[in-house]
Amino acid sequence: YNTIGNIFPLLLQRRGEKMKKVCDAMKKSVLFWDIKEEDLERVISCFDVKLSRYDRDEFVIHQGERAKGVGLVVSGQLHIIREDFLGNREILTEVGAGDIFDEVYAVLADEYQSIAVVAVQPTEAAFFSIDKMLTTCSSNCTFHNIIIKNMLRVMAQKNLMLTRKMAHLSRKSIREKLVSYLSDESSRQGKREIKIPFNRQQLADYLSVERSALSRELSKMKEEGLIEFYKNQFVLYHV
Question: Distance from CA of residue 28 to its chain's centroid?
């Protein structure tokens, strides 16, 4: 009895710590805008939320799998990728704490994943049941309608993000792709000294170019006085 008595409070403490982590991430997410802070724990309980941990380079979701639910990055960073059977990888986008992922495949439950999700660093992700999210429960929780409205906003933002990427990839040369991407990041961040979320290989994967060719073009642009860079930090002079 003493052993059980000692373990039970510890389990409650750990559950409370996990709950707080998920709630903190939810506060950053567009999906949970306009939901009262005191209702966030009720959302977690109502939507059957499951929290999982992933190591660096570990796959959260593999291509061909069924969706686990609507994903929320609690901590860390993930890349949404697509790989062909030869192992060539394309980075579609990156998501960090407070970002939602895999919501489209969660809604389209019969569709197999044409994308994969991989951890860039040690990451925690929570998954929300889409069935319970889109169906009003017996308790008549007021936040269901709010979340459905917010889900449309999330999907619209993702569509805009993919449209922007298509604009970068439609450029013919590596330089044009770089200028398009860096200009967009400069506008989004509101300054010419920017930090991008990719290393060289990841940037090459995102722009669908060879890493060596990308590095050569970056060096040429630096020599021409167009940019300065150190790792993933850039200064744009004439973009």
Answer: 12
